[in-house]
Amino acid sequence: xxxxxxxxxxxxxxxxxxxxxxxxxxxxxxxxxxxxxxxxxxxxxxxxxxxxxxxxxxxxxxxxxxxxxxxxxxxxxxxxxxxxxxxxxxxxxxxxxxxxxxxxxxxxxxxxxxxxxxxxxxxxxxxxxxxxxxxxxxxxxxxxxxxxxxxxxxxxxxxxxxxxxxxxxxxxxxxxxxxxxxxxxxxxxxxxxxxxxxxxxxxxxxxxxxxxxxxxxxxxxxxxxxxxxxxxxxxxxxxxxxxxxxxxxxxxxxxxxxxxxxxxxxxxxxxxxxxxxxxxxxxxxxxxxxxxxx
Length: 294
Description:
- The protein has one domain (2-292): P-loop containing nucleotide triphosphate hydrolases (Rossmann fold, 3-Layer(aba) Sandwich).
- It has 13 helices and 5 strands.
- It has helices at 7-10, 31-55, 72-79, 98-101, 107-110, 132-135, 156-174, 189-201, 211-217, 220-234, 249-265, 277-281, 283-292; strands spanning 59-66, 88-92, 119-123, 178-186, 241-245.
- Strands 2-3-1-4-5 form a 5-stranded parallel β-sheet, with helices on both faces.
- Helix 2 packs parallel to helix 11 and helix 3 (72-79) packs across helix 11 (249-265).
């Protein structure tokens, strides 16, 4: 089943139109098949990460973006749970705090980047700075930017500069050994409505509900417009975007995992380092030394 999902089938381009892309795949796959496929995928990803940790040349940044309830949290839990905890970090970026606002908008993301050998997952990311702030441009005033004293001062050229800054940021990190993959969870508005209803109807999920979710839902069309533009402006060879049909959460996890696995397998130079010659030549001696301690 893993072979059914190829990265190229979900890869976005500068011409991607979200409204034309499916939010649910028409594919006959049982829940058991999804579970088995995901189990295989995450075990293989874990083994590659162990080699990557020993190799110490590459790191991986996985960026997850999508509307509320699109399944980012559960995907992180299910796709990455086999990775050794020392080899993975997860950052869920919230509204910038006072310290973060004293720096440029990329600062808090830059310091959260993974060390060599590790995987980092950004649950929301620097893309919020060309998404939420476009829907709510008044938020930008908190950044105290030169020349931006009112919403009317924020023109199209401002956003073009931000897209260029993001592309430069991602180009820089990929040229220094970071593998960057960006995923947009393409969920239908009706599916979000059903998931919000479940949060209200099931007591164990009540805590997840926020009135703010309904307020942002009213701005759905604006968000889709700006997501489409952000993806189109930053879909590059070095840091590609993938649009994932997300009405089926379980299948979305399999697709994301399959794309990540396919990408990592292309880096066939990621291997455990070999022992130096002196250690190789004396393995038998070291073994006898340890055995003699018994």
